[in-house]
Amino acid sequence: QGDVFTYDPGFTSTAACESTITFIDGEKGELLHRGYPIDQLAAKSHYLEVCYLLLYGELPTAEQLENFEFTITHHTMLHEQMQYFFRGFRRDAHPMAVMVGVVGAMAAFYHDSTDISDPHQREIASHRLIAKMPTIAAWAYKYSIGQPFVYPRNDLTYAENFLHMCFAVPAAEYKVDPILSRAMDRIFTLHADHEQNASTSTVRLASSSGANPFACIAAGIACLWGPAHGGANQACLEMLKEIGTPDRIPEYIARAKDKEDPFRLMGFGHRVYKNFDPRATVMKQSADEVLDLLGVENNPILATAKELEKQALEDPYFHDKKLFPNVDFYSGIILEAMGFPTSMFTPIFALSRTVGWVSQWKEQLADPTMKIGRPRQLYTGAPFRDYVEVEDR
Ligand code: SDX
Asked: Where is the catalytic site (predicted)?
């Protein structure tokens, strides 16, 4: 408090922006949200409280939290006509394709929160995006498996609602397991925001042109889809399944080190962390806890993941290049144990990251000096030359 805490990572000239929301110290493996460390938030807080912290800068009082949770809970329904967007996709469409399309289309339904010059509309758009993303992700899943959409309920928490919309069916009572909802909420929290990662930078760049909030968030979802970014959790579990048993790990570590081989260890390495990703540490603890509680403590994939991590961290290549497990290394194992198909891993990441995108979108718009993002380039192409007629070429 008091002193303005500024952290110059030494490359201010290339810093994308100033921000007060999330701080990462890659060397120490530290992640703070408005100053609070992620391990404490994961252990003591819950996702909607972290949403409030990211959006408004301070932990809420009991009354502020109650009002915020009421607002979010009562905005979880989608305009009924939006169902037709889902039904326009093939059943085998990747849920990320559906999320990009449906979130972008929200601008066509929620006109009264698209004027970015109006702070009140910005507030409404923020709440709508955070509230409706679980419904959109759950309905993308239901549509892909041919089951009827399940509507959100106001008597459930944010994580309970998402699980209920994903796994309930009209034909039977579905009781949300508190162990699953606690694990789900923790996964939401661990993915909430992460400084200027590729998808957040995409949102900021889109917002700098004055695009409406739904278009900006749809752009962030599209960027997150990439396997080097948010798609890594799906790619990581698929990699662990391809490895199968621990005896095959050396073969894959050798491939990851081979410059001629494009294969990389999914869930390993990070642009910023040159130490453990603190989220991976919490996720690993959750994996043990959730799998034990789900009675799959002898999960062979988890055993392979732990052995892969051990062997990679003992290998000079990974050690010297400071490559450690990142947030995606263990998350897929938990999500699969909870009953999600791999195609839903990145949509869950997108759902979780919506509050980070929205918080940074609001921060960008609140900056009176906001200029359109217009990166320059280093031109290395042909010098000036005159046109040559085709008969002279
Ligand atoms: C996320 O930015 C964020 O904050 C993103 C994220 C978030 O919350 O938003 O944290 C979420 O995207 C996490 C990252 C998920 N992606 C993966 O797990 C995919 C596998 N990892 C990589 O593709 C890679 O590590 C990146 C893309 C994440 C980072 O790549 P860089 O920038 O090349 O990493 P680096 O500069 O630290 O690499 C140093 C060296 C390079 O070799 P050299 O050129 O020095 O010879 O390590 C190599 C890389 O080739 N390397 C790997 C590797 N990751 C980097 N080699 C093998 N396996 C890997 N996973």
From this structure: 270, 328
Atom of ligand 1 nearest to the CA of 259: 46
Phi, psi (rounded to 5 degrees) for 9: -70, 10
The DSSP code sequence of 271-297 is SS-SS--HHHHHHHHHHHHHHHHTT-T
| Mean pLDDT confidence for 68-88 | 96
Taking the model in full, what pTM does it have?
0.91
Catalytic residue, chosen from 164, 191, 270, 277, is 270
Q: Does residue 270 carry a catalytic annotation? A: yes
Distance 131 CA to ligand 1 centre (A): 32
DSSP 370: -
- Left, alpha or beta for 24 (phi > 0: left; psi -120 to 50: alpha)? beta
Are 183 and 347 in contact by the 8 Å Cβ rule? The answer is no
What ipTM was estimated for this complex?
0.91
Q: Which of 332, 328, 333 is nearest to 291 (CA)?
A: 333
- Nearest atom within ligand 1 for CA of residue 326: 13
The per-residue pLDDT for 6 is 54
